[in-house]
Amino acid sequence: MVLRTLKDFFRLINRKSTIETAAKISQASDLKVCDTPERRVWVIILMNRAEDLETIMNHDLRPRIGITVRLELSTNRFYLARDYSEAVEAAGGLPVHIPLIPSPDFIKGVMASLDGLLLPGSDSDVDPLRYGHEPHPNLGHVVPEKDATDILALEEAENIAMPVFAICFGLQSLNVARGGTLIQDIVSQRTNPIKHEQGLPRNRTSHRIKILEGTLLNQLAAGLDAPVNSHHHQAIETLGRELVATAWAGDGIIEAAEDPRNDRFVLGVQWHPELGWENDPLSLALFARFIDEARKFASTSEKRRAESAATV
Question: Between residues 26 and 7, which one has the greater pLDDT?
């Protein structure tokens, strides 16, 4: 049996198979253990699963992952690219779209039914007034409902220590929500930047990142550098509270940030792993770890609810 792509891996763990069986299959194929950085990621994912793979992929045990959507201003319609939901589902989660209704009560109610929060990319920019800056001439369009909903969801996730995975615009929202600031336009505000808006094809890896040793991203990448795609004209300027930069592009632009507190999972990346999860080891590892963390959160949440009900 030959595992040609990471999609084959997901097909494997969706079958009736234990960790030991999966390991035997991988060793019997051309996927020899730990002989390349990419294959080390596969081994890490297999070894990190402490439960039977058939059990954790059971539909009833899939964690519910909230994904905030976008708002098309010209038509007043909510929408979102399919890649985010497909990546979450393939990794073992149940994607749930969160409409952009910036009501604290609404968001709190929605978040109470979720096990993880995914903040996706957006074609809009975060309003610079939210971080105390005046608008730059190259600022893109702003969607107040998007900014407000993302920030409310992040505040609730912070209150209950819910796992958060932030992608591109999502990382920028996370940073602003925690008091950080943004570079409003990389090309005009930074000297000698590399190209961060690669265009088509969107899933192509167009530059490399350097990763901080000893970080979660370092563990997931199984190394200190990685190729990534790139679709952004803004980036983190100053980091917000409880965030540590963990990866950089060659021009110094921050490409990833993590929350170092050990009681929660919060990770943001500036690239788009939802475009590469089928063939890119790091993209796969990011979604797999996020879903694992959401599953753990769901388990502890159920335990707390059961204990609370028992005392009533």
Answer: 7
